[in-house]
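We emphasize that the prediction below concerns an isolated chain of 111 residues; any contacts that depend on oligomerization or on bound cofactors are therefore not represented. The input was used exactly as deposited, without trimming of termini.
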Amino acid sequence: MIPGGGQPNMQQLLQQAQKMQQDLARAQQELAATLVDGQAGGGLVKATVTGAGELRALAIDPKAVDPEDTETLADLIVAAVQAANDNAQQLQQTKLGPLAQGMGGMPGLGF
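Result of the prediction step, given as a token string:
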């Protein structure tokens, strides 16, 4: 119900929902095309992911490779990928957050 007792204009609600769906799809496409980086070990290991979190590249400086200590290298790789994913999540919140907040403003749909 709308304040004042009136019924929501269903055509208007549908148009708002369609626009939000289009905006969301556009933002998701932008995220999938945007690359973000993360690094560990002072830049010895760098990971690149899409804004959607898909790992696209991993760069390892030869100085990080010690055959006697592969555990540290593995930790650096995990840390770099995690840092890149954290950056991707921040990007997602920046791009998608305003769209999700817009859903709260649709009377009659229970959002």
